[in-house]
Amino acid sequence: MGCRRWLIASNIIKDIQLLSNPILDYFFILITSLRSSSFYFLILPLFYWCIDRRFGVKLGLMLISSIYVNTIIKEITTVARPIGSPGIRSILTQSAGGYSFPSAHAQVSVTLWGTMIVHYKNRTINIIGIVLILLISFSRLYLGLQ
Q1: In this structure, what are the phi and psi dihedrals at residue 21, rounded to the nearest 5 degrees?
Q2: pLDDT tens digits, residue range 73-84?
Q3: Does the reported pTM lie above 0.90?
Q4: Tally of structural domains, the chain
Q5: In which domain, by residue range, is 90 found?
Q6: Which residue, among 102, 98, 94, has the nearest Cα to 143 in the 3D structure?
Q7: N or C, where is the chain less crowded by C-beta within 10 Å?
Q8: Cα–Cα distance between 41 and 10 in angstroms, integer?
């Protein structure tokens, strides 16, 4: 990423972090945790065994494919994370390994909730999915990890 683009991204993170306070810190830590591997180890078996076996397999394959694509793009782009950058406060750094772009948290949440939105075509799932995609993506910026 060019120096100018990095500065713009850095300034966006700094502007978002002007909102920071302990309540939002805990809220966005919780939100970013909705993309943790523990969450997927719970949700995939739930779909497979309790809701719809065929959709559970599809969801699992979509998530695995998304993670592979994300890893390949990260290795090609090699964009460093802003952790340790002046003026950026990074919280929950243990959830941020490797390169920054593209955000695996954002990509996997889009994959999971996008697949559910397309599959179920339900207004409630649409709203929940869109809200979680936006919150998870925003949480990575708020926490200074993207």
Answers
A1: -160, 165
A2: 989 988 888 777
A3: no
A4: 1
A5: 21-142
A6: 94
A7: N
A8: 33
Which residue, chain included where needed, has tokens 């990074």?
90
Tell me the CA distances in angstroms from 66 to 16, 69, 71, 104, 145, one per residue in order: 27, 5, 9, 9, 20
Q: Is residue 119 part of a domain?
A: yes
44 lies in a domain? yes
Which of the 8 DSSP states describes residue 110? Answer: H
What does the pLDDT look like over 84-100, one tens digit per residue? Answer: 778 888 887 777 778 87
Structure tokens at 140: 């990575």
Within-domain flag for 136 = yes
Torsions phi, psi for 44 (to 5 deg): -65, -50
pLDDT at 117: 95
In a domain, 16, yes or no: no
CA 71 to CA 89: how far, in whole Å?
Answer: 25
Tokens read off for 11: 């300034």
